[in-house]
């Protein structure tokens, strides 16, 4: 009788261990990964940066997910927020609905356009609805592109809690760079649990609206907002940090995050934006051109001579042309 009980006990222990092992294997297989790329590691300030990648869950490419993106400049300021789909048949959480976004005055009243004159401050009125049966807090962000797809910057507000099925109205302050060109500016509004750099993820599809930047006494000049061709299973965005902005040169970090069903993933990548300030005085001027001119005709290993701006192994007229593009640039 004792031996029978002992055998039963041993069999029970083995069964428990087998079940635990299978559960551990199953759980180990349950993971999400964001693979993040940029088309280059280094750019000239004013170049188009393409950030793209993939979301995989359990080793399967996801074509109906979303990825939150945040770009932080060398001064640790957030200059871009996006909610990027990984396909054309995305299922958004829609726990929050963006009801409206429009250009406004400081009191939240709608205005038709931003007149480009000092002070270079405008406002965005954002109205949201909480679709949950419980209170919820979140971050509302706006990112603005100019008519040439240059990134004007971002603004955000933390909304601690919105009542169940309640409405939230916020006015976000935005500084328009004085060098912003006239034309149609695009506003991307996004809602996150937290910032993507903190692992926060999108709560709904982003909202794209536009407004006009005009000169005093001028008329609107409609142009198309920036677009990116969507590839199924891939997220992608493009942005330009313009020469007239205040973001400066240095390392920029792209943060991404996603939550697909119960799985979360994050990834980040650092890129360098630079200008041909060869003497390091915080300016690009005739002195930098003279440094290139003094090296004209040089040939050697690409990248070994700082005056070889395009790193083709030769210092020639092409390097002078690159430098001329940045004449007048000064550090923020």
Walk me through this protein's architecture.
- The chain is globular, with a radius of gyration of 26 Å.
- It is built from 3 helices and 17 strands.
- The chain has helices at residues 2-29, 286-293, 317-325, and strands at residues 32-38, 42-44, 48-57, 60-61, 66-72, 78-85, 96-104, 113-115, 121-130, 136-145, 151-162, 167-175, 183-192, 207-214, 234-240, 250-260, 263-274.
- It is mainly β and 332 residues long.
- Strands 2-17-16-5-6 form a 5-stranded mixed β-sheet, with no helix packed on it. Strands 8-14-13-10-11 form a 5-stranded mixed β-sheet, with no helix packed on it. Strands 1, 3, 4 and 15 form a 4-stranded antiparallel β-sheet that branches.
- The chain starts with a helix and ends in a 7-residue tail after the last helix.
- Helix 2 runs antiparallel to helix 3.
Attribute tags:
Type 1 dockerin domain, Immunoglobulin-like, 3 domains, five-stranded mixed β-sheet, 332 residues, mainly beta
Total helical segments = 3
Q: Walk across the major sheet and give the strand order.
A: 2-17-16-5-6
Low-confidence stretches: 16-29
Secondary structure: helix percent: 10-25%
Cα Rg: 26 Å
Name of the CATH first level of the largest domain: Mainly Beta
Portion in strands: 35-45%
Shape: globular
CATH topology of the largest domain: Immunoglobulin-like
Number of strands: 17
CATH architecture of the largest domain: Sandwich
User: Please, how many domains?
Assistant: 3
Q: What's the overall average pLDDT, rounded?
A: 89
Largest sheet: 5 strands, mixed
* Structural classification: mainly beta
Rounded to the nearest angstrom, the distance between the terminal CA atoms is 87 Å
